[in-house]
Design brief:
By secondary structure, this protein is an alpha+beta fold. The chain has one domain: Alpha-Beta Complex (Nucleoside Triphosphate Pyrophosphohydrolase). Helices cover 25% and strands 23% of the residues. Strands 2, 3, 4, 5, 8, 9, 10 and 11 form an 8-stranded mixed beta sheet that branches. Strands 1-16-15-13-12-14 form a 6-stranded mixed beta sheet, with helices on one face. The protein starts with a strand and ends in a 9-residue tail after the last strand. The N terminus is likely disordered. One of its GO terms (molecular function) is metal ion binding. InterPro entries: NUDIX_hydrolase-like_dom_sf (IPR015797), NUDIX_hydrolase_dom (IPR000086), NUDT19 (IPR039121). Keywords: Hydrolase, Magnesium, Manganese, Metal-binding. Belongs to the Nudix hydrolase family.
Length: 374
C-alpha cells in the first residue's frame, strides 16, 4: 500500500459519435451540469545532462480569471464551436490527412467517458479529435506553444518542431493570442497562414477528471488531460490577460511550494503531480503512455464525504466508491461519524485522498487502475 502525504491549504477547493446535435446543446448546462475541456500536461527535461530533472509547464491563472483564479494549473480550457469547424476537415485534407483515420487507443482499450460526447453532421469525427483540437488551441492561447506540424510533413510521426520562425517575436505571438481569445476561429486562420495543422498524435491520453457534484454547475468541468512529452523546453509566451505567470518546475518543487503556501494547486493537479513523483525519466513516461494506449483510461469522479477529521475524496476502485455514482445531482458531502483511520480499518481496497482539518493532504492507494502510476 502506498501512502503519500502532501499538505495543502484549507479552502483550496474540492476539487464514434455521429448523431446530429448542435454545439450549444453539447455544452448546455440544461443537458449536463458541467462544461467540457481539454488540458495539456507538458513535460520536458530541465537540464541537458543525466540524471535529467523533469519539468512541468504550469500557469498561474490571473485573479480576474473566470476559472480557478489565482490557482496554478496545467494549460487548457473549454471546448469551443471552432473545434467542430468543417474548416479543419479541409485543412487536414490539404495535408493529405483524413481526420476520421485517427485511432488513439488499441481496439480493446477502455475509452474514457468524455469521448462519448456527440459530434455534429458538419464535423462527424471522434470526440478524441475534437478535444485534442481544443487542448492545442488553448495551449497556444495561454502559453504561446503551437503544437502543430507543417502541412508538407504532417503525416510524419510526431517529433519536436514546434518553434516557428514566424512566431519568434513575442509581440506577434501576443497579437495572435489576443485575436484567438476574442474569436477562437482565428486559431484556424493562424494555421492557414503558417501552413500547418494541429499535431494530434503529439498528445497522449493521460486521465479524465469530472468535478464533484458538491460544486455548482458553473464551477464543474469534465476535463481530459493529455500528456505532451518534449525533448527540450520550448519558448513560452503567456497571455497576460488570462495568465499571471508561467513556470517550468519539478513535481516535487511544485508540491513543496503548495505545502508552504506559495502557490495554490487544484485537486487534479495535486493528485497528478503526486503520482508523477514516481516517474523519473522520459522513457518511464513513454512506457506509461503506451500502457494507457493499450489499456485505456477511466473517468475520475471524486465522491466527497466528510469524516470527523477532514474531507475524504473517493475514487474508482475504492471499497467505498459507488458502483453507479450520480454525476448529475448537486449534493453536499455526506457527513460520517468516523475518522480516516476508522474508515480505513474497515476496508481492503483503497483509492482515496484525505484532506485533514489542518490542511494535510494524503493519498491512500493499493489498487492499480488501467496501468496508472501511483
Amino acid at each position: 500500500m502506498l501512502f503519500r502525504k502532501v499538505k495543502v491549504l484549507v479552502g483550496a477547493g474540492i476539487g464514434q459519435f455521429r448523431r446530429s446535435i448542435s454545439f450549444d446543446r453539447l455544452q448546455n448546462s440544461s443537458t449536463k451540469p458541467w462544461r467540457d475541456s481539454g488540458s495539456a500536461i507538458i513535460v520536458a527535461p530541465m537540464n541537458n545532462n543525466p540524471p535529467y530533472s523533469l519539468g512541468y509547464l504550469m500557469i498561474e491563472r490571473s485573479k480576474g480569471s473566470g476559472v480557478a483564479p489565482g490557482c496554478v494549473v496545467f494549460p487548457g480550457g473549454v471546448v469551443s464551436p471552432v473545434d467542430f469547424s468543417p474548416r479543419w476537415t479541409n485543412l487536414y485534407r490539404d495535408a493529405n490527412i483524413d481526420l476520421g483515420s485517427f485511432q488513439f487507443f488499441d481496439k480493446n482499450a477502455h475509452t474514457p467517458e468524455i469521448y462519448s460526447r456527440e459530434g455534429t453532421d458538419a464535423f462527424p469525427y471522434p470526440s478524441s479529435v475534437v478535444f485534442r483540437l481544443a487542448a492545442i488551441r488553448e495551449t497556444f492561447e495561454e502559453v504561446g506553444i503551437l503544437i502543430c506540424r507543417k502541412t508538407d510533413r504532417a503525416s510524419n510521426l510526431c517529433d519536436y518542431d514546434y518553434d516557428y520562425e514566424q512566431l519568434s517575436d513575442r509581440k506577434v505571438v501576443q497579437a495572435w493570442q489576443t485575436k484567438i481569445r476574442k474569436s477562437p476561429e482565428e486559431f484556424i486562420n493562424l494555421c492557414v497562414e503558417l501552413k500547418c495543422v494541429p499535431d494530434l498524435n503529439a498528445l497522449s491520453d493521460w486521465s479524465e477528471w469530472l468535478t464533484p457534484t458538491s460544486l455548482k454547475p458553473k464551477a464543474r468541468f469534465d476535463t481530459i488531460f493529455y500528456m505532451l512529452i518534449l525533448p527540450k523546453m520550448p519558448r513560452v509566451a503567456y497571455d497576460t490577460h488570462e495568465v499571471a505567470s508561467a513556470q517550468w518546475a519539478s513535481s516535487a518543487s511544485l508540491l513543496k511550494d503548495h505545502l508552504e503556501g506559495k502557490i495554490k494547486l487544484m485537486p487534479p493537479q495535486l493528485y497528478e503531480l503526486s503520482r508523477m513523483l514516481n516517474l523519473k525519466s522520459i522513457p518511464e513516461f513513454e512506457e506509461r503512455v503506451l500502457r494507457r494506449q493499450k489499456l485505456g483510461i477511466e473517468r475520475f469522479f471524486p465522491i466527497v464525504e466528510q469524516a470527523l477529521d477532514g474531507i475524504l475524496f473517493l475514487l474508482p476502485g475504492d471499497d467505498r466508491y459507488s458502483k453507479e455514482p450520480d454525476v448529475l445531482t448537486f449534493s453536499k458531502p455526506q457527513k460520517l461519524d468516523q475518522t480516516f483511520e476508522q474508515l480505513q480499518s474497515s476496508g481492503q481496497k483503497f483509492h482515496r485522498a484525505q484532506l485533514t482539518k489542518d490542511g494535510a493532504y494524503t493519498t491512500v492507494i493499493n489498487v492499480e487502475r488501467f496501468g496508472h502510476a501511483y
